[in-house]
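Researcher: Here's a chain I'd like modeled. Treat it as a single chain, no partners, no ligands.
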Amino acid sequence: MTKMRRFYIATEDEIKHGETTDVYFQRTIKVLKSKGLNKVRVVAEVTSGKLPKNWKWGILCGIEEEAHLLEGYPVNVYAMPEGSVFYHESHNGVREPVMVIEGPYAAFAHLETAILGLICQASGVATAAARIKKAAGEKPVYAFGIRRMHPAIAPMIDRAAYIGGFDGVSGVLGAKLIGVKPVGTMPHALIIVFGDQVKAWKAFDEVMPPEVPRIALVDTYYDEKIESIMAAEALKEKLFAVRLDTPKSRRGNFAEIIREVRWELNVRGYKHVKIMISGGLNEETVRALSEAGADAFGVGTSVSNAPTVDFAMDIVEVEGKPKAKRGKMSGRKQVWRCPNCLIDIILPAGEKGAKCPKCNEEMKPMLKPLIINGKIVAKLPSAQEIRSYVLEQLSKIQD
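Model: Modeled as a single isolated chain. Structure tokens:
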């Protein structure tokens, strides 16, 4: 009898051993073994379908988890470094592999569901975060969206958003696993329990340690301008920022509200007080509100519930011979990238790299050893290192 669970989540061991697989992979393995084909070696590549929302590029996320999933299995794995920009198709029109797995198919077929699941959602979150960070420019953006998703995957969402370029996350566990401090302000509930905005703001100031920024939520009972002035007069130089979290149904022209709040704070001598915006933000609104004068953003659902990237895994070689289903190009491949332009060319494995068709720079191979004979051979960088890599690429890539 199956033991009752309090939460419908898989354990690490269940994921590692393929118990989260689709049943047809188990049946495939059974057939292969019964017919003596369980040692047939294949090369399988992971590629994406067309990206959501007509995105031209994505950010690859989840490679560290792929390494831990496949570690110990009799496979060789080659992958783009985590945080790499990737495309649906290369400059020469070939569907682009982000990861390649080599080994007996029967040894890893039951892991395909997990292999794809680990990168489909994480890459979608990281891509949405990267696009929003690019829209915000130098202004900080924080991940506030884990309340919209199952709590079991909250740390994954926070990590993917951070890797995508966000400056911080609100989740306590997510921040701990990333190695950063969680970021947050205060909820409307705090003010409602006190029944008075000023009392709540002052209590927050009295209780919180000095390193916690004093950011006052300013739209609970009155309009944003009035409460911003009230907060500034209550906390004066201690006030770091005001946060506007107004529901869409009550906003009116939000850009005009931001300009009005900025003006009223400035004329009263509170130019040091920044304006933080949260609630229903996405790539387009962040760009517009940044231009209106917002200084920082808390972004939730549009990132935590970002569309998944439609990755698929396909066999492209069997026992050293090119083989693939229709619609896929057979044979092992390498992705060559221009480090300046981030243009990709895909060539059959073994062929030397090309020069960039745009700037004539020597192109570099992107699929690098991750696992050899079941052992992790690549350095698994920290979230901070991956984030820096993403931001470097964002400075080069054109939308």
